[in-house]
Each structure stands twice: as structure tokens, then as C-alpha cells.
Design a protein that fits this description.
The complex is a heterodimer of chains A (449) and B (449). With 449 residues, chain A is α+β, with helices and mostly antiparallel strands. Chain A contains 17 helices and eleven strands. Chain A has helices spanning 5-12, 16-19, 77-84, 94-103, 128-140, 146-162, 167-179, 191-196, 199-209, 225-236, 285-297, 303-310, 342-359, 363-375, 384-396, 403-412, 416-426, and strands spanning 36-39, 45-50, 56-64, 107-112, 116-124, 216-221, 260-263, 268-276, 318-325, 328-338, 433-438. The chains are: A alpha+beta (449), B alpha+beta (449).
Chain lengths: 449, 449
């Protein structure tokens, strides 16, 4: 199918002048984001990217402590609490609050993750003071009215039913339970837990999580440093200093298990595979970005996409990537394929991983990965919303304020030896657990549950 | 870095509101535009915040233009466009983009097929050269064709066949448009995908892929003065297709009464109700009919403050979700939809009757002034925020032009929405929400489950 190296070189000859750029850096790879640290009048620190091109402001906030530390009898309470913050606040009931958001053409929402809770606000600069007041109300004066609480619980109960046949839910639960059976990360909501969530439980979580001890704020858009500081105080100054919430234990990855199969009546199976990973503080984190691009992170340029999709037509997509929670770190891959092809897709995936593991990557692959990763970073920084996502993501992950502008230098410094070290450390197919959800054919009987 | 999902996605035209929305009573961003001598229209939207560009070529051809019996060929061809030319080996298109730090993809709809690259501004010439090359010089082998057909079958399973709700939606569209090509799924019927052949694909390509049937949209760090010489050099040399076929499609017979369809699947855990009505679109309306219909559907079911959500979810507490929306972007017509999912223990009969009562009251009494104002604001809000993203702006202009609108139509969209009157809303709502022009779908578990 694909021509050999010689044919390729000939075919490409007419484009040689442009191809000569291929291994050089684009102008965009040196693009910098002007992030500054500001301190509000009351002493709260925040990161600001001030740019008046579009008359809008994006704000993100993050607090440490999420679903993994919620009380075991009310699993799900953290996300119910964060949802309820915008279901009525101050003098406004849920409807009045939502109508006010629409009248201001703004959005504000809170959400819960395993390890933290976050706030996201978007407003036109002309309405900013009213918008910040809406966020303040949600954070400090939520009503937690019985009607919206009952509605959210009804919605969650339906969610319990629909997840029973959701392949992604089934696969992820199977993996979490196989790999960290006794850790909070393997917990899921239940009918009894949902029914036990009440106003007191919401108030308890709100008081436990929202304080100044771990608060991190990023603001991007049409606002000056001085006004941004005032905005921070409007929304957050009344929070108590508080203390860091407790942390769950580290989730130690169990040994890889034999193939896990979960039956689900559908023509195509979902395949997930998980192996050991590393935290983003690890010195190998940046080399891992390069190694993962080569294995399965690089879209059409990855080895798995080439072997499983392009060469054999077995899947529409296949990919891999590191998946990090505060207390667990794994490498994770996914693919979907016809039930009759599952066996072959898994075999090809394992074989390609084994080849990379035993032979290592090539210098050309490393060069291509570095050129892509450094050149494409600016594509994630071409709008206020994207800048807020990237910069706040680094902030919440504990990076320093200069990291966003140093990140490409770190990637440029990665060597072939670094990449091959990471491959030996993390890409051994024998360390991976595979789970299949569907009606796969031809897998060993012993693997079926 | 999350696990990759495959490339080449279909944009359902549901994205209408996001795609044609624009600025709050102000005019929308006006791009620069010019036309090459071979008939190719060029649109340039300058945003210099980051040194990157979004380069798109939109072809005025889509699934609705497929020869009968060859459903899926437009989308199939979108995949084949990545398979090389005399100058680019199979798979090298995307690899070259990636090696230059860029991203590329494509999508197909009933009305259009679009290809895009996002890349550093100093690589714009490279992508223009490659994109122009594949407009006229594509070549691929029989093996490539066969392997890609397998990929597309997997794509169909992933998008449609694995998901009972998608299967029902496909059946409902086929009944809503019994003769018009909008009743055929963009990805194609499985039995026809499996028999598509290389010659049909090439014939489709030679007919439709031509500069006089294409629109070039470039957004980002470039202006028309910079772009024009490149556009002339690469696209301006391409030979137009003489006698482009007209895009007139067969129309449906008159409606004879309500149609109902029930779809059962053992994976369904939660029954749900949905209904489609035939409607006008921006491509077929006169005056502000489509604008007025968008406003009507926003009031009826566009948010959590809408009539349907308030009545069914909040007041009667018989549904966990309820809403309505317009799909009004089509070149050859549109549809609107209404849906609801009951709470545990409530029948579909009951939520459907409740939804019908809400619709009847709306058609009888019309919206309040506050509802009308809020709905217009909400529609306009999406537009304001789309100015933050060069990708969004490129998509809005590309889709609108490919679907028969002019630059002025897009620029004036916010002021046209603002001008919509209560009477216009009532007239179009009464004309559209007619059971005789509808298909109602029930999604249910297997009997006895």
C-alpha cells in the first residue's frame, strides 16, 4: 500500500522546498502567553492574561478536594453540591437565577472531579460586575432549595439505569475495580447513596471544600490587573482561610489481570487497556508525551493508528494517553471494533506495543513528535477560552507561572534515549490489562466472565 | 493527551445555532472576500492574537448529492481525500501536516464537505499547496479503497449501530424525508456502503471537486492582501468543472398524517420520546421565517428556563429532561424537534401528552415579551462568544456560504434576530408544529424486559 522509502522520496520531490521546513520549527512554536501574577486587595493571588481583543472575560477557579474524599454513605454528594450552587442563590430561586444568567448573556457553573472542585465563568466585559456578583451569590449564598435537589436526584436515578448499558461506564468501572479494588476511585453512586443526599450533606461539603487554603484562580480576557484583583475579591474574599482538605490514600496499581470481558448486546466492542503510568511531577513526564505521541497519541501519525486502522481497517479510531489523578497514574488506550475483529485488534495492538518495547523508537519518530508537539501548542492558545483552559490546567496541576512558556523548551530537550527509557518503563504490553465490552468472538473461554 | 478518537467526523447539521449564531444586536464580524478567476470564492477573517491560521476548503457537495443506491459516497470520499496524489503518498497528507506542527481533519454533511488544517502561519503556503493538489489530482489504489471501506463500516457501527437512540433517529429521518435525500443518513446505509466501488467514487470526485464549486475560508493571523497571491498561485491555477450539475433535489409528497415509529432494543434502560417536524430553513425561507422559527424553538425548549423544561421537569416532575430545538441551517429544508425522557415510573404516553399540552398552549397564547427578549438574547449570546475562536468564525462562514447564504446574511443575522416580532414567531410556529408533518419516535426496551 504505502510506497517504500525510495518511492516516497521521489514522490515528494516536487514539494522539496516546502518539505525542507518539516524538521524546522514554526514561528508558532515560540509563541508566548503573557501570564502575570496579581494579588487582590485582600491578598488572594491569581494568574491573569489580559487581552482586550474580544470584549469578554473568562475566569476559572479550582479547589483541592473532590469526590474521592466524600462521605461513603452519600457517594455523589460533591457533584450534587456543585450543581446546586447555581440552582438558586440569594433572593433568586432556580428559575430566577437562570433567567438572570440569560439576561446577562453569561455563564457560570461549578463542577466536581475526583480530586477537586472548580468554577468556570464567562461574561461579556460590559456585564462583568453583574456577572461577578452572580458568581459570588452562587458561592456564598446558595439556597439549596428542596425542589431542585429533588429534581437532580430524580435525574441521577435515571442515570443509574442508563449507565447499565453504557459501554464506557462498564469498561471503566471494570478497570477501576480490577486495578484499585478498595480505593475511592473505584466507588460509584448507588440508589441508597443518592437517596441519602440531603441539604445537610450539601452544606457539610460546601463548608469542607470552599476556602482560601487551596484556591487557585486564572482570569483571561478584557480586564486590567487592577479590575481583575477587585473581581477576585468580589467573588472570593469572604471565603474563610480554612485548611487543606484531607487526601485519599495513593491508589497502588494492582498486577495486570487476564482479559476482562463484559457482555453487552451490540455489534461493535469497546476495548480499553491500561498499564502503569507516572505522575506529572515525574522527570519522565515530558519524555512520556513524546513516547505516547509515537505509540498512540499522535492521531494518524501514531504507530497504533497506522497498524490497526490504516493497514488493516479494523477500527475507526485507536489512541493512547496518560491518565492522571492526584493519587493514581496510568497509561490508557481505547479502540472500538466489530465483535468478530476484537481478537485481531488486540493482537495487533499488543504486537505493536511489543515491537516498540523491544526495538525502541527511531530518531526520526522522536523528531517528528517534537516538531508536532511544539508547533501545535499554539493551536491550543488561540482564544481566550483555550488560554484559560491551558493556563488554569497547569495552575491546578501545581505548575509555576512560567511553565506555559517553558513547556516547549522542555519538549525540545527530549532525546531518543529519554524516549526509549520511558518506553522500557511504561510500554511493556505484559503490564497491561485489557477489558472488552460487547459480544466479542473468538476470545479464550477463560477470559469470559 | 486523552485517548484518541478517530478522525474524519460527520458534523450533523444540528449544530445550526452554534454555526449561524452571531452578535447581540450588533453586526457580526465582517470578513474580507474576493473571488478567483476560476470561480473559487475566498473569505478571510483576521485574528492576530496567535501566530496560527485555520485553513478550510468547503465543497458545495454533500450526501444529498449522492446518486441513488450509492449512499455514503460523499462521506467515503472525504476519507479518500487523505489517500494521496501523484505528489503525496498514501497517509502522507496528515503526516506532513503533523510534522509541521499542524492538525487536519474533515467533515461531511448533507449539504457540504469540508477539509481543514490548523497550523502555524508560516506553514500556510504548505497546506494551500497540498489542499489545492488534492482538489484535482487525487489517486488511490483498490486496496486502499477496500481497507478504507472497512474503516467506514466501523465508523458507522460506532456512531449508529451501537446506539439504539441513533438507530431510531435514523429511522425517523427516513420517514420525515421519505423521498428527499435528507432522509438518507450521511454515513450511508450499511448495505450500500458495503457495495460502493472505486469508479463511482472517482466519478463523484471529478464532477464535484472543482474550484468553481469550492469556498476557501482562512481565519487567523493573515489578511486578504497577504492571502491573495497564495490563493492565486495554488488555487487560481486549477481547472474549473464545466457545466457543474445543479443541486436540485427531489421533493417529498404532501404530508398525509402523523407518523409514529417505535424502536425496541435490549440495551435501552430508559424509554424516551422524541418528535421531528418538517420545517423551513435558512436555505428555503423568505424574509425572517427561519430566524423566527429559531426564536420560537428557543422559547419552547432551548434551555432550562424554556416552556417544556419548566412544565415537564420542574412543575409536573414527570420528566428528567425535556426540550426542543431547530435544525434550520439546511440548503434544502429543515426540521425542528421536541423530546422528553420520563422519570422512573412515568409512561411515554404521559410525557408525550404533557409535551403536546405545552405546545398547544404556546401556539394558542404565544410568548410573553420577557420570553421573546430572553430567547433573542440567548441566540445572540452564542454569536458574541464565537468571536473568541477563529475556528468558530471559519466554520460559521464556511457552512453558511455552502448552505446558500451570503456574507451579508451572516453579518446581519444578529440584527435580523433582534427584529423578529411576536407575530412572526406565532405564524411560523403554528405553521411548523403541525402533527400532520411530524414523525414521533418512542425508544423502548425489549418487550418483557
Amino acid at each position: 500500500m504505502r510506497g517504500g522509502a525510495l518511492a516516497l522520496a521521489l514522490a515528494c520531490a516536487p514539494l522539496a522546498p516546502v518539505y525542507a521546513q518539516a524538521q524546522t520549527e514554526s514561528a508558532a512554536s515560540r509563541h508566548a502567553v503573557p501570564v502575570q501574577q496579581i494579588t487582590s486587595p485582600s491578598g488572594i493571588e491569581a494568574w491573569l492574561v489580559s487581552d482586550a481583543t474580544v470584549p469578554m472575560i473568562v475566569m476559572r477557579a479550582y479547589w483541592r478536594g473532590g469526590s474521592a474524599i466524600e462521605p461513603a454513605n452519600v457517594i455523589g454528594v460533591t457533584s450534587v453540591m456543585t450543581d446546586m450552587l447555581t440552582e438558586g442563590a440569594g433572593a433568586m430561586n432556580a428559575n430566577a437565577y437562570k433567567e438572570r444568567l440569560q439576561d446577562l448573556n453569561m455563564s457560570v457553573g461549578f463542577s466536581a472531579g475526583w480530586d477537586g472542585v472548580g468554577m468556570s465563568l464567562t461574561t461579556l466585559s460590559e456585564n462583568r460586575d453583574a456577572a461577578f456578583e452572580m458568581a459570588r451569590l452562587a458561592l456564598h449564598e446558595p439556597r439549596f432549595d428542596p425542589e431542585p435537589l429533588a429534581r437532580i436526584k430524580r435525574q441521577m436515578l435515571v442515570g443509574l439505569r442508563t449507565r447499565e448499558t453504557n459501554p464506557s461506564y462498564i469498561a471503566n468501572l471494570a478497570l477501576d475495580q480490577a486495578l484499585y479494588p478498595n480505593h475511592p476511585y473505584a466507588r460509584r453512586t448507588s440508589r441508597a447513596g443518592i437517596e441519602a443526599i440531603n441539604r445537610a450533606a450539601l452544606e457539610e461539603r460546601r463548608a469542607a471544600l470552599f476556602n482560601r487554603a487551596t484556591l487557585q484562580i486564572t482570569i483571561v480576557g478584557d480586564i486590567s490587573a487592577e479590575d481583575a484583583g477587585r473581581a477576585v475579591d468580589t467573588i472570593f474574599a469572604a471565603l474563610p482561610q480554612g485548611a487543606r482538605p484531607p487526601e485519599p490514600p495513593d491508589a497502588t496499581l494492582g498486577a495486570p489481570t487476564p482479559l476482562i470481558v463484559r457482555q453487552l448486546p451490540q455489534p461493535q466492542s469497546l476495548v480499553l487497556f491500561v498499564g502503569p503510568g507516572i505522575q506529572d511531577e515525574d522527570p519522565d513526564w515530558i519524555p512520556l508525551a513524546v513516547a505516547n505521541y509515537i505509540l498512540g497519541g499522535g492521531g494518524f501519525s501514531s504507530r497504533l493508528m497506522d497498524q490497526v486502522r490504516e493497514q488493516r481497517g479494523l477500527v475507526y479510531g485507536i489512541g493512547t494517553g496518560p491518565s492522571v489523578r492526584e493519587h493514581s497514574a496510568v497509561m490508557r488506550g481505547s479502540a472500538q471494533t466489530e465483535n468478530g475483529d476484537v481478537r485481531e485488534a488486540i493482537e495487533v495492538t499488543r504486537a505493536e506495543m511489543a515491537r516498540l518495547y523491544s526495538e525502541g523508537a527511531t530518531q526520526a519518530e522522536v523528531n517528528d513528535a517534537i516538531t508536532y508537539l511544539t508547533g501545535s501548542f499554539a493551536l491550543d492558545l488561540d482564544s481566550n477560552v483555550k488560554i484559560a483552559n491551558v493556563v488554569h490546567g497547569y495552575q491546578a496541576a501545581g505548575r509555576d507561572i512560567g511553565y506555559v512558556n517553558r513547556r516547549n523548551d522542555l519538549i525540545r530537550a527530549v532525546t531518543l534515549a529519554d524516549v526509549n527509557r520511558v518506553i522500557r518503563r511504561l510500554f511493556n504490553p505484559a503490564d497491561y490489562t485489557f477489558v472488552v465490552v460487547g459480544q466479542p468472538e473468538g476470545l479464550e473461554a477463560a477470559a469470559a466472565n | 493527551m486523552s485517548g484518541g478518537v478517530g478522525k474524519r467526523f460527520i458534523v450533523a447539521c444540528m449544530a445550526l445555532l452554534a454555526l449561524t449564531a452571531s452578535a447581540y444586536a450588533d453586526e457580526f464580524v465582517r470578513p474580507e472576500t474576493f473571488t478567483l478567476r476560476n470561480g473559487m470564492q475566498v473569505v478571510v477573517i483576521t485574528d492576530r492574537r496567535a501566530p496560527v491560521v485555520t485553513h478550510m476548503v468547503w465543497y458545495r457537495v454533500g450526501a444529498a448529492d449522492e446518486p441513488r443506491g450509492h449512499s455514503g459516497i460523499a462521506h467515503f470520499f472525504e476519507h479518500l481525500m487523505f489517500k494521496g496524489t501523484r505528489q503525496i503518498a498514501p497517509g502522507e497528507f496528515s503526516r506532513t501536516i503533523a510534522r509541521n506542527g499542524g492538525e487536519d481533519n474533515a467533515f461531511t454533511n448533507w449539504d457540504y464537505t469540508a477539509y481543514f488544517e490548523r497550523i502555524a502561519r508560516d506553514r500556510l503556503e504548505l497546506v494551500m499547496r497540498m489542499e489545492a493538489d488534492r482538489m484535482r489530482n487525487l489517486q488511490f489504489s483498490d486496496e486502499t479503497f477496500a481497507s478504507e471501506r472497512d474503516v467506514i463500516v466501523e465508523e458507522r457501527r460506532q456512531r449508529i449501530d451501537n446506539n439504539p437512540g441513533s438507530v431510531l433517529g435514523e429511522r425517523m429521518r427516513a420517514m420525515l424525508w421519505p423521498h428527499h435525500p435528507y432522509g438518507t443518513p450521511v454515513i450511508g446505509w450499511l448495505h450500500e456502503i458495503q457495495t460502493l466501488d472505486r469508479e463511482t467514487a472517482l466519478q463523484f470526485y471529478r464532477t464535484w471537486y472543482a474550484p468553481n464549486n469550492a469556498i476557501l475560508v482562512v481565519a487567523g493571523d493573515v489578511d486578504a492582501a497577504e492571502l491573495r497571491p497564495l490563493a492565486e498561485r495554488y488555487y487560481g491555477r486549477l481547472r474549473p468543472t464545466r457545466d457543474l450539475p445543479s443541486r436540485t433535489w427531489v421533493s417529498d409528497p404532501p404530508n398525509v398524517g402523523p407518523i409514529r415509529v417505535t424502536h425496541r432494543d435490549e440495551k435501552v434502560r430508559q424509554p424516551s420520546f422524541s418528535r421531528l417536524y418538517r420545517a423551513i430553513s435558512y436555505g428555503t425561507d423568505t424574509g425572517r421565517q427561519a430566524h423566527s422559527l429559531d426564536v420560537a424553538m428557543e422559547i419552547l425548549g432551548g434551555s432550562e428556563t424554556s416552556r417544556l423544561y419548566r412544565a415537564l421537569v420542574e412543575e409536573q416532575r414527570i420528566a428528567v429532561s425535556a426540550g426542543a430545538g431547530g435544525n434550520t441551517s439546511g440548503l434544502g429544508g429543515g426540521s425542528v424537534s421536541v423530546w422528553a425522557t420520563p422519570v422512573e415510573g412515568v409512561s411515554l404516553e404521559r410525557v408525550e401528552a404533557a409535551a403536546d399540552a405545552v405546545i398547544a398552549a404556546f401556539l394558542r397564547d404565544g410568548p410573553t415579551e420577557a420570553e421573546l427578549t430572553r430567547a433573542k438574547n440567548s441566540l445572540a449570546a452564542n454569536a458574541i462568544y464565537s468571536r473568541d475562536s477563529q475556528e468558530s468564525l471559519a466554520n460559521i462562514y464556511g457552512a453558511s456560504l455552502a448552505q446558500g447564504e451570503s456574507i451579508d446574511d451572516v453579518v446581519n443575522w444578529p440584527t435580523d434576530i433582534e427584529a423578529v416580532t411576536r407575530e412572526e414567531v406565532m405564524t411560523i410556529a403554528r405553521q411548523t408544529l403541525d402533527l400532520d408533518a411530524s414523525v414521533t419516535g418512542w425508544l423502548l426496551p425489549e418487550e418483557g424486559q
